[in-house]
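Audit log entry. Action: structure prediction of a protein-small molecule complex. Ligand: S-adenosylmethionine. The ligand was supplied as SMILES and no pocket hint was given, so placement is left entirely to the predictor. Protonation state taken as written. Sequence taken verbatim from the request; no trimming, no tag removal. Recorded inputs:
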Amino acid sequence: MTSVTLALLSARLGKRQAALEYKWMKRATSEVPLERMLARRVAGEPLQYILAEQPFGPLTIKVKPPVLIPRPETEHWTIRLAEVLNRSSARTLSVLDLGTGTGCIPLLLCNMLPAGSVHAYGIDISSEAVSLATENAALCGFSPSHDITRNSFQAFQASFLDPSFPHISLGVAPPFDLITSNPPYISWPEYMQLPHSVASYEDPKALFGGPDGLDFYHAIAKLVARKDFLNPGAVVAVEVGDGQAASVQRIFTTTAQMKTQIWLDPWQKKRTVIARR
Ligand SMILES: C[S@@+](CC[C@H](N)C(=O)[O-])C[C@H]1O[C@@H](n2cnc3c(N)ncnc32)[C@H](O)[C@@H]1O
């Protein structure tokens, strides 16, 4: 049976890739039988969901459908952001990650920045994301504790589109020193073109950013423009879709009166807008 499924996998992915993935599935610590893993992959499920983990910098992040699988471009800018902050900041940072998913962004910052210098909060509308991010905080060793000499990350369920966000009862209160976000940014026409492996497995709430893909940037810019939302010298770092960087820059300069800069991803695409007041 395995050899038939393996032949089907080779037909789908090519011989080389199929052999590699077969090796990874055999080594996986998952309790799912190998034959079942192969069948799921043949059906088009993303490999990361089958292996149940994804490397993100030095971390191993647990992944579980339908929570968005962390992408290499997000890993790239988060590492760069940590390097910049490491050089420029001597103080403790209060960090808010909007649309936290697995918690990968704040957890990598907790890992890369000095112990006791990061107290991070993540917000997500999805209960599956909040429980996975909480699990990842524990697995990576950054669950909240009374020990302020350690970095910490805590996830909460809320919508940052809600006009009353962040409500007092939430346990997350401004001002913040750093806002990070990889918000949903797929436009309607792009959503219709998504490959089966994305559209059928990852949560549409994690992908669809409104008709032109920019709804969440308008919401973030309005939030950070509020009086007392940011500490002096605060930084806002948002990931953007291909071709969106100029529009997102404009949103932050007009709505929040911030100065902006663009970072490229490893494929030379304009991927991150950095805004400072
Ligand atoms: C593109 S995913 C990013 C996940 C993670 N930060 C990453 O980079 O892998 C966007 C996330 O935003 C969440 N989201 C969508 N609408 C939201 C809202 N109104 N408020 C809070 N989170 C939201 C989704 O559930 C999803 O987890």
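Audit: result stored. The longest strand covers residues 230-239. The chain has a mean pLDDT of 94.
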